[in-house]
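User: Okay, second chain of the day. Same drill as before: sequence in, structure tokens out.
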Amino acid sequence: MTDPLLHPGWPARLAWGPVELHPLRRRDAVEWSALRLANEDWLRPWEPTAAVPWPARHTPAAYRAMRRMVARRARTGISLPFAVRVEGRLAGQVTVDNIARGALRAGYLGYWIDRSVAGRGVASLAVALVCDHAFGPGGLHRLQADIRPENLPSQRLVQRLGFQQEGLLRRYLDIDGDWRDHLSYALLAEDLPGGVLARWRQMSPGRPVD
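Assistant: Same drill. Structure tokens below.
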């Protein structure tokens, strides 16, 4: 039986228009593998360094192993992992990970999106939905997003959603073959009283995803 004190707000399904978020599913292994392989050049510069080549890390078997690990973390309340779908097609992931409860009640935000839907507001909408869920049913107070200074699109995404830059983390993470600086952004539950989705709607008029 699920203990709501350990993992509030999970499992969950979120949706707005053609964008849907849901827990990772076993049957999505082949679709996930094909999507990640097709997006190697688009995603690899922002991914953790790994000794295993990209194709070997993105087989259906690799997805199933990753999904089991992610599901365990979700069940123990330290992760909120979502697959992103656009009009029924897998298009990315959004995760709040390394969640701390107690006096901190915070988590770290991460996301990736299929290049073919980039620029349509899909990623920012998906992140907005997850933020509202994390601050609401998830019971969190703070979300942090750490982004490489070179990743201007990702910085613009969180800025549009109300995240504030708090500092520079020097040689913070081992990404794409080296220790990389990251800019630290954060959003607090009280920063946007109307919610993050409302902010997205205000900042994204005329987006095709609407």
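The first strand starts at residue 14 and ends at 16.

User: Thanks, on to the next one.
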